[in-house]
């Protein structure tokens, strides 16, 4: 489980409150994860544990997911 040492903080990075910064946040998270998986090549168990944690966080409630924001009830236009 040493592989999860650098993956768990990704789950704790707070999402920006400004909807215009959400695309930058998502791009940072995705690029960090791609770089991590290409460079460190974590074991299968750690990868599955991390993906299961992301899946459970995204399905636990509205607005909790790392990859998209909560745009219900107000506009999330970037312009």
Automatic annotation (TrEMBL):
It is found in: Membrane. Keywords: Membrane, Transmembrane, Transmembrane helix. GO terms for cellular component: membrane. The chain crosses the membrane at residues 20-38, 45-69. Coiled coil: none annotated. Signal peptide: none annotated. Pfam families: BC10. Acts as a tumor suppressor; induces growth arrest at G(1)/S checkpoint and apoptosis via RB1-dependent and p53/TP53- and NF-kappa-B-independent mechanisms. Modulates expression of genes involved in the regulation of proliferation, cell cycle and apoptosis. Belongs to the BLCAP family. This is Bladder cancer-associated protein. It comes from Anopheles christyi.
């Amino acid at each position: 489980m040493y592989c999860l040492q650098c993956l768990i903080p990704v789950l704790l990075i707070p999402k920006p409150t400004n909807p215009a910064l959400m695309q930058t946040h998502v791009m940072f998270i995705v690029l960090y994860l791609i770089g991590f998986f290409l460079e460190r090549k974590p074991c299968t168990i750690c990868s599955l544990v991390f993906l299961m944690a992301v899946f459970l966080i995204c399905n636990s409630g509205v607005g909790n997911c790392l990859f998209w924001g909560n745009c219900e009830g107000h506009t999330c236009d970037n312009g």
